[in-house]
Each structure stands twice: as structure tokens, then as C-alpha cells.
Amino acid sequence: MKIPHSLMAVMACSMAALISSCGTNSKSAENTAEETGSSGPEAKEVIYMEGVYATSTLLPLAQYGVENVFDDDTTTYWATAKGAGPDEGLMLYFPAKTYVKELVLKQAENDDLATVQEITVYADGQRVESFDASQPVKIEKDVTALFIKIASADQSSTEDLVKEGGDETLSTETFDSKFSVGIADLKLFNNEGPLKVHAPLAVAGAITASSTLKPAEAYAPSMLFDSRKEFVWAEGAAGTGENEKLTFTFGADQRISAVKIWNGYQRSEKHFTSNARVKSFEFGLKNGAKAKYTIEDSMEPQLVTLGEPLTGKEFELTVLEAVPGSAYKDLVISEVLFFDQATPVLIRDDGKAEENIKSLIASTRGSLMESFVDRRLKNHQETPYATSDKSLILRSNKTFVLYEHTTSSDASREENSEIVADGNWEIVEQQGNYARVRIFGKLINLSETVDYYKGNTQSSFVKIFQDNLTITPAEVKGEKYVDTFYNGSPGDR
After folding, report:
1. C-alpha distances in angstroms, 401 versus 86, 375, 398, 421, 441?
2. What is the spatial distance between Cα 221 and Cα 462, in angstroms, rounded to a whole number?
3. Distance between CA 264 and CA 336 in Å, rounded?
4. What 3-state class would DSSP assign to 231?
5. For residues 122 and 441, is the Cβ–Cβ distance under 8 A?
6. Mean pLDDT computed over every residue of the chain
């Protein structure tokens, strides 16, 4: 990966959580949010995750969703998309620091499921270690976030590529396109025994917005409930977002006693300040009385407790005032979570999400890109002075991830560097054996920071970037930041 010197500069980071509350739930009442840090309403017996997500999920989403790993039913399971396995994973956000002694995975068993051999665990952004997936995994840390990455699985094959000259070796690794990986159960333990961990309550429904920034798939209102704070809803109207509306529709009556908001664009501090944020808004039943709320201009999550719980099928949030962005007028909200007392509630619009995934897959059918979507491209390279592993995944949900780990050494020292980039991607052009793809998001140097996969990613080590990738049957090559990836035999993909 090519990293300009300017990209290595450390950006300053400052977060504040100055939040207060007052008022009642009347149309004229004005309330401010409660100070919460990263925690929500306290749960006495059950630990409700503040968010959980899987990086890849097999369709239909309702059948293979991440919630299955917490339902105490080993006949249900989370599964990756076909052809996706290594470098995919599960992200868990806790509402507060929680001691985790160890975790145990139970893998799902089916003819079309590969066996996970090794996992890598990140606790609050810090790599804990890689572990045998069939054994209990020792964590022994207070954590607010855990990322469980599939490091290796069977049904993978390696091909040596011929490179001319010198002592360099190069190989590719391919995961069989007919297989997924599946996790049936995830148990977490502290010193006293198993923790009673539940995912937020996912309720079928829909989220609509009065406007959405283009491309709509990248900034859709459904992003508000995906538990990924880096993927956001952005309004697309003129101005800075005042009077823009979000409508939340449930399939049945739902009670809401509080609303938690991750204001602005939380991908990095620069994203946050560059785009407009909410200053005040109205919230209530769509056809009923609404209360005005004011929240701080902060990247901290902010909990708004309603004067009294509301029950209904349709709720509406209207932006009243906005804080202008330093570079863009578009107003952004990263995440929303409703509460019914201690139980976090989110809306799951699987129909829309599946429609978008199927549309992307259909657009690549019969083209070169069909063999790249949801398929990891991995290279292993060795020279006399360095060893590197790098991988790239372009997912059918229009997210991507890029990993690179390099170990270099000489007579006096050894240096390790780990780089991760993630974000969104879109096809710019495709014809015959050629395609051009734009990727955009954040790039993090893990050799400099332990903040990746953390609930609140510190922007001090986050680099905003975009690149254009040229894709041919033989290779994938970036223009600025992404080094060349060499492909194996086309038939293997």
C-alpha cells in the first residue's frame, strides 16, 4: 500500500460529553439530552448490547442474521454470503465497560458451511491474539467493544504466482465460492460464569427520509439502525438540513421511552466537523404532539429520555436547527437507538437491504465483477527483508475492507505495520474484462494506534481517503493508496 508522508500525520482529536436534561413531553416543552458517555439505560440481569453487526450475511437476512448467535438456539446461525469467509467477522458494542474472561464459539454445521480454523480477536481496538476457533478464547479484559474476525477456514486453496527475478515469492489464497461460514452460538464468560448477553431487539419496520444524499444506497436512512457508526444517513436537500424529516414505522405498536443519537458523521473527527450536525429536533408520534430536544455538538452518544413513554406505530423526527459543517452543507446522523425502558430497540428493514444487495449482484452478473463481489482477494509476499499479507473484499452490501500486515527486518531490528481501510465502494465503469471501482472511507495504521474496532474510534490516527481501482482478470490496482493485488487463476474464483 502506498502511503504518502502527509497521510501519516497525526490529526488532533477532542471529544466532549456535556449533556443535560429538562422539560416535559408537551409540544412546547424543550428538553436536553442526558449525560450518558457510552452507556444506555441500566439493565439489571441482561446485558443488552448497544449494537451488534456482521460484516457479511447470507440472504435471506432474517434467516441468517447476527442475532442468531445470541438466541440460545443452536439450530439457528449467522452465516456469511457465499464465497465470503476469512476476514469477515462479528462486532459487539457493550453499553459500558464489561469484564470478559473468555469467549466460546459454537460453529454451525451444514454441507455448504466451511469450518473456521482460527479467529483473531480485537478488544477495544487492540489485537488480543489469534486463537484456535474450536477452543475457549482467553480475553481477560474490561471491554466496551469486541471484534471477532475469521482468520482462516478450510475450503481455502493457495496458488503460487510466478514473479520474475530475485528472491521474491508471491501467492494468492482463495476461499471456495460455494461455501459460507456459520456461527450458531457465542458465549461470553466472566469470573462467575456465563454472561447473559442479548442483541438489541430488532423489530420489523421501515425508515424513510424527506431527502437522501446521492448515492442513496450509501447514505440511506436504514443506515441509522445498522450498528455501524461509520455508515450514516445524510440528507440531500438544499441548505443545512433544517426541516428535514425521518419517519420510523413499526409493524405493530411499539413503546419508546428514550432515544439515543450518535450525532453527525462519526467515521472520524474530520468527517464530523466537515458535515452539518443536529442542534435541535422535534420527536413524537407522527400524527400526535411532539417535544423539542436540544443535543450537544459532540461525537459522544446522547440519550434523550422522553417526558413520558410514547406508544404507536409511526414516529417522526424533524430537524429544527443544525450546526453547519466546515466543508459541506449536508446534515448527517450516524446512528439511532430507541429504548423501551432498559431494552434497546432498532428497526430492521431487511426487505430494503436485500433489495439493494440483489440489485448490486444483478448488475455484475456475467461481468468481470461477478467473480470479485463478496470474494476476498489475498496476496502473501516474501522478500529477503520483508513479509507481507494483504487482502481486499468488495461486499455486495457496498462496503469494503482492506487489510495489510507487513513485517520487515534487518540486522538490528524488526518492525510490524498493520493497516486497515474500510468504507463504501461503487462501480464507476465495467465492460468486458475491465472494471473501474471507486472506494472511499477511512484508513487506519494499527501500528500507530489501538483504536480500530472500538466503539468510539479516535480520529487522531484515522486518515480520510478515496481511491480508484482498476480491475482486470489478472490484478486489482489503485491509483493512490492501494498497491497492486495479483489474482489467481480466474477459474478458482
Report:
1. 12, 11, 10, 6, 10
2. 25
3. 11
4. coil
5. no
6. 87
| Gap between the Cα atoms of 359 and 366, Å rounded | 14
Cα 78 from Cα 304, distance rounded (Å) = 32
Residue type, 446: L
pTM: 0.84
- The neighbour count for residue 492, using CB atoms within 10 Å, is 16
Whole-angstrom distance, CA of residue 187 vs CA of residue 70: 8
Whole-angstrom Cα distance, residue 335 to residue 222? 10
Which cell is 60 given? Answer: 435471506
CA distances from 263 to 48, 71, 300 (A): 21, 30, 8
pLDDT of 27: 34
- Report which of residues 323 and 215 the model is more confident about: 323
Report yes or no: 230 and 423 within 8 Å, Cβ to Cβ: yes
Pairwise CA distance, residues 242 & 231, whole Å: 21
CATH of 7-43+201-348, one of 3.20.20.140, 2.60.120.260, 3.30.420.10, 3.40.190.10: 2.60.120.260
